[in-house]
């Protein structure tokens, strides 16, 4: 257990005992631990340490840093990694005055980091709302109910509440603080964007191209508010707009009432079961979202009989777990119901 706060100098020294050419999970945990302890100021520790690695790429380091968030890792993670590498904290004892100074320094960092966390959370909400508004416009103006999809043909399912793109659409997201916005471009405006896009691309700009022939699966919350679109290309590539909210959002095939109510991950599995059984089925998009969606929906439809449609995943080679079946088991433990593992060879990764 850490008895005294560490100074920035000590952390910098400890980092010398962690190999910057470590695996990506370790690299990310170092970023998270430093960010949790020092906030954005931790970049001045993470970047020089990362730069000593033989595989260092500035863009990857910046992307990893931006992806790291508070709470997942702490400075204790960094200390443990350094100790595993042979680092030992200096045995010299600190005076009472030095301990007070370090404690005050750490408390100041904690308050600054908390302010950053709150600002980031507020900014995320603004970005989610901005992207949701853009998704609503795209759905209303650039898609329609009728169309053809190579993806649906390959899966052998029909369209149930989804939309087809009338034309190629580009969603451009600018996340600069105080300038958050989304632009929707088509035709010549889309070509002009790519012609004038600086190289390298500015970090505050991201974009999603939605091609003619793709489908849009609307993702709504319990109040039917549209928050995101899952865009599926003809080849089955699945995409979401950056910042769009997915947690707790879903797409329902059919009408929920009494009787069986299926919960599936992907749209194709949901559509197949809906067409075979006539049950209403909820497409939760992924196994991690299934528990959240089930908690919210079943609180409102208490007469529904849940059926958990677990994807027949191959075991994860790293931990042996099956994400879809594990999620279904958690849902069953919380809400009862039956677990079915549909075996549709054509629906792998549906």
Q: What would you say about this model in short?
A:
The protein has a 5-stranded antiparallel β-sheet with strand order 1-2-6-7-8, covered by helices on one side. A 5-stranded mixed β-sheet has the order 9-11-10-12-13, sandwiched between helices. Strands 4-3-5 form a 3-stranded antiparallel β-sheet. The chain has helices at 8-15, 24-38, 43-51, 58-67, 75-84, 96-142, 150-155, 187-196, 267-277, 287-300, 323-335, and strands at 143-144, 163-165, 169-174, 181-185, 205-210, 215-220, 226-232, 238-239, 251-253, 259-264, 281-283, 304-309, 338-340. By secondary structure, it is an alpha+beta fold.
> Main sheet?
5 strands, antiparallel
Overall pLDDT score: 87
The largest sheet has its strands arranged as 1-2-6-7-8
Structural class: alpha+beta
Question: Roughly what percent helix?
Answer: 40-55%
Distance between the termini: 46 Å
Number of helices: 11
Low-confidence segments, given as residue ranges, are: none
Strand segment tally: 13
Radius of gyration: 24 Å
Secondary-structure element pattern, one letter each: HHHHHHEHEEEHEEEEEEHEHEHE
As an assembly, this protein is: single chain
CA-based shape = globular
Beta-strand fraction estimate: 15-25%
